[in-house]
Amino acid sequence: MTKTTNNLDSCEAFAQLTALQPVGNLATLLTPQRVATAQVAMDDGMWFNYAAKAVDEPILQALQQLADEQQVVSQYRQLLDGAVMNGSEQRMVLHHLTRGQLGADVVHGGTSLRDFYQQQLDRIAAFCVQVHNGEVRGGSGERFTRVCQIGIGGSDLGPRAMYLALAHGQRSQKQLKLEASFISNVDPDDAGQVLAELPLSRTLFILVSKSGTTQETLTNESLVREALRSQELDPARHMVAVTSETSPLAQSKGFLTSFYMDDFVGGRFSSTSAVGAAVLMLAFGETVVKEFLAGAHQQDCLALNPNVDENPALLDALIGVYERNVLGYPATAVLPYSQALSRFPAHLQQLDMESNGKSVNRQGQAVRYATGPVVFGEAGTNGQHSFYQLLHQGTDRIPLQFIGFLREQGGSDRVIQGSTSQQKLNANLMAQIVAFAKGRRHKEANKVFVGQRPSSLIYAAQLTPRVLGSLLAHFENKVMFQGFLWNINSFDQEGVQLGKMLTQQVLGGRVEDDALDAYCRLFQS
Amino acid sequence: MTKTTNNLDSCEAFAQLTALQPVGNLATLLTPQRVATAQVAMDDGMWFNYAAKAVDEPILQALQQLADEQQVVSQYRQLLDGAVMNGSEQRMVLHHLTRGQLGADVVHGGTSLRDFYQQQLDRIAAFCVQVHNGEVRGGSGERFTRVCQIGIGGSDLGPRAMYLALAHGQRSQKQLKLEASFISNVDPDDAGQVLAELPLSRTLFILVSKSGTTQETLTNESLVREALRSQELDPARHMVAVTSETSPLAQSKGFLTSFYMDDFVGGRFSSTSAVGAAVLMLAFGETVVKEFLAGAHQQDCLALNPNVDENPALLDALIGVYERNVLGYPATAVLPYSQALSRFPAHLQQLDMESNGKSVNRQGQAVRYATGPVVFGEAGTNGQHSFYQLLHQGTDRIPLQFIGFLREQGGSDRVIQGSTSQQKLNANLMAQIVAFAKGRRHKEANKVFVGQRPSSLIYAAQLTPRVLGSLLAHFENKVMFQGFLWNINSFDQEGVQLGKMLTQQVLGGRVEDDALDAYCRLFQS
């Protein structure tokens, strides 16, 4: 851990990068030739296009040198081989192994962990067949028609975003097996609202908590069990668990069955583990989930390439670091032009901000440069009628990540006034990229667009399960590479601990802090 | 327009503010005494508590001077009296008048506009009675059980957020009259998915477009009409319009009836106009909407007070400007500890970023200071398991806006392991405020919390219709005051125009820009 864990600001390549002239005018950089060629293949007809990013050839060369100097692909290989990359928690980082093997056999406690993850997938698949064919039924003997996941954070945002991304397309193809719902917030109105809408006798619940101790999830479990009992349904016949083998939940008798994960897959990286696979396979079946995992694995393969112009996740990561640490931009907007990706920005917000919102490097020293940015976004074209005003004419520059597809999912596209809805959607997408980059002059000051707003575009023919898996893994790998570049541990989350501890003091009546005590009194009035 | 439209950086009070010593240690500032007293009444048992904001007495005095020097309450009074406050579009700004009158009679074209807005509300109420009692029915003779709003931007985000905020509570009290859905995105998968789930013979659609020309909305209207016809339902018996009297839609025969708005209520401020009232009254009835409007009007009254310690919206605005322009913070997170407010941050994101994401002052000159920040957020406790890591331990400080309630809406709260869900929710909320402000020391660097993260808290007994109206108007008025302080026009949105124009070029086959043409070719491959 010497040469590979430099701070960003002690890298020679970073000094070179900082010394380079930034792109003077994005409008002149963005030629038709560049639009057609400044892109990296992500396979399956999917591309990462960076034509409208403010990076020219000298900057790209310096970024390549930075990647080489920080040995980020080598660090990725170590991670794949089972090195302890989450140093603060002394854990391996193995989410890539949930969708395929690229490194050495990773053995823990005498078990090959690739086999372990695969076994869990196989067990989930076998269980899903029983649910789908009616062998496993609810307490009243009815077939399950709904599935509801109880989980929070990584047990909610990723699986929910993935489900929403595929549900309409699968339903349109008559392939939706069970409709899914999600309960996450400890606010009783969350469970209350979802339970009011569910036919409980036909609903299978999935309780997801790695530790088996998550306050919100266990609280909502109790509300759900009580609701089932109030309809004289045996909760144990309506619930499965996804947890670690060592958690208290794993020993409980209150479940139809349990599927296992382990400490080497972090919550925000767990969509391809049992955490995501159980609900997705119940909703869509095994074939869809296998395609989804294959797409993710494909991006993991591409991420091994040391050449930035053949490694989309690495290039994306490097450009982001350049924008954050050289150009000084504070935030990034994720703008999928796809209603199916309506919650994908919320997932990326967790993935990115929880992984790289850190101030301490892997040697336990405070860093003196910016790390992860604020990430936010909404599905387009909705955002255009909302926050794009600030993106175009505000006083800060916010780099943009567009995502688009040539075709829709649901087969309801129609020609209306000379073009289809999908054509209108994509016309907006392309127009925005150019408007942000080039702007326009105008004699009235408030109609001037300065332009110079950089964006990248990921596009594919259609949002299939495989393409969704690719998208997911692309951003996971981007975030991982950025953590390597910043020399931070992207795989722990110590920042959630203090709030948990103080919450326990409040609930246990053991408040030590006098200000906290005063807030408690406000809320008793 | 001389003294009242100073730039922020030419104000004497701003120079004084900048010269003041910032609060050295938020942890020592946050005493129990301060928690109990550093708050402004919002009436109805609702409070704006700024105890954990990094503003001490000298800073508050300078902020009061800044408000006085910029004459912001006087500008607000001019606005209420019908002054042309949207200068670039030469329009009055009258959303306050949709919920009550506080200034002079505003007469336009011989009509008192307060009367006009009230008449539209009365017409909506009369129509809702006919729908609810079954006098007005769908094409097949069935009663309407669902309402679906077709609109985008301000015709979607605000009304949707308001509907979601009240739906569970109203349903729990058996007061939900029609369940509501929303179609916004031009992506055909949006309409496709919503229509697949709606019982069309029992669904009433509301088409909302002020101009009657919004591309997304008219396209979705066509999809909806086609879907109705495909079930042999007469679209004209399933659709009402909300539009301006001068729009092409207002002349159309294809609606059961039309309700009117005008150019003096901007989309993002239109939740209390016919845009919000139609769907909310169909869903919840007249009483609920009247309470909602009364709550908004109440905040409009409070906003007239020139004393910052009695004007919660003004104080909130001033603290935000201090954080943005003196402390240099780039973003603000909105964190409602209420699942019912799940889309309230998305509404505030539009309200704030579209209003104040501007770089040009009201005299048409570029400003040399930061204006509106990035606004983002999710309902708590979900955010704690997502992006709070960065908020606690990231390299940027992001000011926070917490919102909380003593009681839940739905009556499903239960004691589980010694406390109810609502108690757990609020324990988390209070713990977070203190954790962000005070942080903690630790011998391991990655477990250190530096603290010094400022937050404010708006809290009330329960999220009732009246409290929701108060919340909505509080933020509208905050945004308005910030626009006055920054000397920008918060009421136009020129930043959306360029993208629209380029989109029309693409769809019309008249692309002038060669890079845009190249992007079009990418999407034809």
TrEMBL record, chains A, B:
GO molecular function: carbohydrate derivative binding; glucose-6-phosphate isomerase activity; monosaccharide binding
Matching HAMAP family: G6P_isomerase
Lineage: Bacteria, Pseudomonadati, Thermodesulfobacteriota, Desulfuromonadia, Desulfuromonadales
Name of the protein in its database record: Glucose-6-phosphate isomerase
EC number(s) reported in the record: 5.3.1.9
Keyword line: Cytoplasm, Gluconeogenesis, Glycolysis, Isomerase
GO BP annotation list: gluconeogenesis; glucose 6-phosphate metabolic process; glycolytic process
Subcellular location: Cytoplasm
Residue positions of the active site: E354, H385, K500
Similarity-based family: Belongs to the GPI family.
Gene: pgi
PANTHER family: GLUCOSE-6-PHOSPHATE ISOMERASE (PTHR11469:SF1)
Organism: Desulfuromonas acetoxidans (strain DSM 684 / 11070)
